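Example record

One chain of 410 residues, shown exactly as stored in the release files.
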Amino acid sequence: MSDMTRSTGRHAMPLPPQRPSPAAGRRDRAGARNPVAPGPTGTSADGPPVKRRDAFFDNAKYLAIVLVAMGHAWEPLRGDSRAAAALYLTVYTFHMPAFIVISGYFSRSFDASPGRVRRLVTGIAVPYVIFEVAYTFFKRWAGDDPTYPISLLDPWYLTWFLIALFVWRLTTPLWKIVRWPLPIALAVAVLASVSPDIGDDLDLQRVLQFLPFFVLGLVLKPEHFQLVRRKEARILALPVFAAALLFAYWAAPRMNAAWFYRRDSAQELAAPGWTGGVMTLAMFGCSLVLVACFFAWVPGRKLWFTALGAGTLYGYLLHGFLAKGSRFWGWYEADWLHTPLGEITVTLIAGAVITFLCTPPVRRMFRFAMEPTMEWAFKHDATALAGGAGTTGAEATRTAGSHRRGGRSA
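Predicted structure tokens for this chain:
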């Protein structure tokens, strides 16, 4: 019975609050039935509620960034290994969409207030400038291209995600007020895929073609994540992933992998214009299915790598120097790397490196570039508002940050 029905009498004594059942406690510890959305989980020593990180999202971000690093490690092996090519296509179908969905989900509270805009600048715009310049000098030095220009309008390699996230977050208030946000975002993506004149400025093709995944994250609710984390979903995910790998194995020598990068229009890929719309919708559907399967197998409890989920942006940006350096310096020229044993070795090394780059010591070392405070750059009223808003939005603007409500994620 509820407390209301047990205390309806005039002289009824108030009853103590109900305690959760042992079964509920077990479910909570296992993480299988915990609500996905972060929320108050207790009270601090001074009284105000505090928020707890949800292990599910930290686990998802860590596992996704490991797949990103492995995908980059497999790229030079695709020409000699059809299996590596199949794994590459499968992973590229869902790893960045999964990051973007999480980013959208934790951007729902973005309201363009001064504090949140300030965090967007320090958490996204400033790191974009820093790493765009750093990558440029790295390419000049390691890539033996001394004339390669610095261009903040033409993101190089991994920095496209930062500028895309900056644009997506700025448009969040718009997607929150339109009646059909996801269909409109899909229409925008389709139009971009058939528009070869968009150009390379700010990598707008990627910004627009990946937009539906961000908008999808904005419209998702905690119960949607609970749905894909059920036992039935985990069981179903296995044959779906197996079918995806088999299809990728068949498609690897027949399909242009550039479709998965979403950085070109159909015409730029030497395909008829109408195929852009078809491929955009088809790949969105495939990505959505595999993202759901990926989330189904993400653990909901705290594990040894859970804390690393807060540092995935560090791993994402820093591993780019090694990923590109491996090509510049000819690391893949060794014949043994193109054998099954070499491919396995490369995969394990990629996982170990990206794990190290997400650790707290690395984050402390590079925090000046990733999370600058820049108090000197803002008016005092904006600074005060940012401080008053607490940390709820401080990490939502990153691929790898926290998943507090409105927090940085990717």
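Notes: Residues 235 and 296 are 9 Å apart (CA to CA).
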